[in-house]
Amino acid sequence: EIQRMITLIYNMPKPIIAAVNGPAFGLGADLALACDFIIASENALFCWSYIDRAVIPDGGGMYFLPRRIGMSLAKDLIFSGRRVKTEEAMAIGIIDRRSDLGDLLSHAEQWANTFKDTAKPAFMLSKRIVNKSLESSLEDIFAQSNMALGICFSSVEHRTSVENFLNK
Question: pTM, whole model, 2 decimals?
């Protein structure tokens, strides 16, 4: 049921930030990739070590890793099982931000607080559409966006935001 858990994290309607402070090997690395964003301390270490056990990544790594870092680099990491330190992880796009060890969780929380939670339907629908964008055509994205706009326009959050704008 690991795959079900990964899918639930990936499809969560709220932003999910993985704060990595140590080794994230195999499923741990896949779990971080299932999140929307990854912040890591200098102690973080990433490795798709499945090959060392003569198995394949079964936690979404073969889906998420090429989308984050490109096909060639993903193959390199999956086929070699080599370890990636924080500096390289930042340079190649595995992680989105770095933080000092003592500030990791506070930096992750500060980052999370920048996301607008007053527009829940818009956020949820945007995340769902963006998550499918690499497998969809432009026309499909436009169609999904038009349907999502209809939902947003009828939401309490939209009505409240328009009233607040007009009252300023």
Answer: 0.88
